[in-house]
Amino acid sequence: MTSKRFLSRRGFIAAGAATAGAALAGSLLPHAHAAGTAVKPLVFAHRGASALRPEHTLAAYAKAIADGADFVEPDLVSTKDGVLVARHEAFLSETTDVTRRPEFAGRRVRRTIDGETHEGWFVDDFTLAELKTLRAIERIPQSRPGSAKYDGMFQVLTFEEVIDFVAAQSATIGRVIGLVPELKHSTYFARAGLPLEERFIATLAAHEYTRRAPVEIQSFEVANLRMLREKLGKRSNLRLMQLVGVGPVKPADVAADGGALTYAEMATPAGLRTIAQYADVFSPPTRALIPLKKNGMLDAPTSIAADARAAGLRLETWTFRPENRFIAADFRDGGGEHARNEAGSIAEMRRYLELGLDGFFTDDPGLGVKAVAGL
């Protein structure tokens, strides 16, 4: 399943401080991190502050907002009873305590989703009530022991709970926080009789916050973004983001339909012009913009940044992580591969920001804010 996993300027944050109980400002104006400064690249909190708290939890979102993220990301999947919940993927075994829950032992299955096979537990085999009995855990505790200390403390969230929490935080701190939801495995869920898109559209429409606040909708698939553009049209608070992986891999919907289009073809000038017909943002992995040499150091940039701008697309890349194992060799320090390297992560982000990024995903938005502040 293609993911913003471990492959490794213009804003539209609504103006006006929302006070508790007050309606959000109706107009959308450029966002700057400080009064009088130029517009800065947007900092997207990848699954919340997922380097510091278990991903997609209230703790992760709260930490991201406190650390200055412009947007928080809820990845969306569906429960058995059709409720959208915030999990990075359908597979539950790595991010919840389901493996330690004997009452669900009989639901262990082997399943292939978007070309990847896993054996374990899957979200669409659980009702929301059952899912709520599980607790979130850290995905990579060997690299993030500080986050792992929060294991077992937080529930799985519904999309509506995420919206309500972000709206409340926005009203409390007087700063509008955007949402950057990703529709995960759309083709898989549609074939399981649990299509995501109509429920997603209905949820956006049902909440005052998502009718006004900035929302960027992402997907690695193509057909769902085309459908969303047709259904939602062009709205001042909405953007559509086409995510891509690397190389000859096909989007899941293209592969399922027997199509030939690959992510590599989508990243060509012709492919980018096609994307611009239905999306607003092109979002490749960082190493597609500046690849790594065999020695792990950064190579020369590719033409993708310039090509995306020429096609009229915003460029927002994924994902920066603060541990040495994920950082280019240019910026690693003397710690081990799992060691946290804040200075190196900031330096790496600034190198990529030189390409003129409009935004970027990071597991540690506090470091992202520091990187942007240096521009």
UniProtKB/TrEMBL annotation:
Keywords: Glycerol metabolism, Hydrolase, Signal. GO terms for cellular component: periplasmic space. One of its GO terms (biological process) is lipid metabolic process. It comes from the Bacteria. It catalyses: a sn-glycero-3-phosphodiester + H2O = an alcohol + sn-glycerol 3-phosphate + H(+). It is an enzyme of class 3 (hydrolase). It comes from Pseudoduganella dura. Pfam families: GDPD (PF03009). Its EC number is 3.1.4.46. Transmembrane segments: none annotated. This is glycerophosphodiester phosphodiesterase. Belongs to the glycerophosphoryl diester phosphodiesterase family. InterPro entries: GP_PDE_dom, PLC-like_Pdiesterase_TIM-brl, TAT_signal, TAT_signal_bac_arc. GO terms for molecular function: glycerophosphodiester phosphodiesterase activity. Residues 1-25 form the signal peptide. Residues 41-372 form the GP-PDE domain.
